[in-house]
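Render this sequence as a predicted structure.
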Amino acid sequence: MKYVLQGLEPATHIPHSMHGSNRNWPETNCYVDLWIELLSALGLPPEAMLGFTVRQDFEGDQFTFFKVPLEDLERLFDIRVTEFSIFDDVERHVLAQINRGRMLLIEINSYWLPDTRGISYRTSHGKTTIGINAIDPANKLLHYFHNGSFFDLQGSDYDGIFGRTNVVAGAVQLFPYVEFVKFPQIKRNPSPFDCKDFLKYHLAHRPHLNPFLEWQKALPAHIEDLMLRPEGYFHTYAFNTLRQFGANFELLATHLSWLQNSHGTSLDSEIAAAQSISETAKSMQFQLARAISRRKPDSLTGLIAPIAEHYERLMEGLDAFAGVKRAA
């Protein structure tokens, strides 16, 4: 078995508290969840990277699929991540980079991931990202970070993620998108004061308009479309709207709690506002689903107004904390 990080085993891995069952959103999205677990495995605080969450916007048909900026990882932790060029068998690339102490983050088909059992494993196809920490080609065994924990797979699943199963003769096999992670020789633990500066930077680049008021304008047309779609489409819509901003703002609340503990400055009202946005997103999922199934969507747009008010208070408080002056 070849390892990037020694001493990690799926059977004994304990997920970070941000993936605990007491959370509104125990899983956020595959990329951020992977980094939470990877940083935690390195003994680094993943809470430190979450200042970027203040930049989430409504993009017209979805909320921003939030991802930690790679430059933040480098400046906070001295961890360098860049796109990796695949030109050969992916397994060979994985082996070559693990031998150099580097981890590959690979977009693969969730159909082959046993940790998605009951969701997509051997039932449906979807794109997701895993981080490969260990590989044993002779026994077709892999250890990988994915979503909210650390797992293993083997046998036909191993062949599947490397594209060796159900290959159609003459079909073009596209290489996956891959990034590789270069770890520093000396671990860097970020200063809370550096993280406050990052928060200030991201606040200065947040949306100019309240994203929830923008969503409120678009929602009636979205609801009309949802009522014409197959039932299962609702879950796709909810993932790209309610889950995205619900999980995003719960992570922001966690970041602010970490900053508050580090700085000794009260951010209780801002934490409460971010948490309220997250909680409302969770409850609104059920209300929206029920309204769509009953064909009674008239009251739904009114649910957004309280979220928009929480957002305004949250951003005003954070601007004051970080010393950001916004242009009128």
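Summary. The beta strands are 2-3, 80-84, 103-109, 127-136, 141-146, 149-154, 178-182. The radius of gyration is 21 Å.
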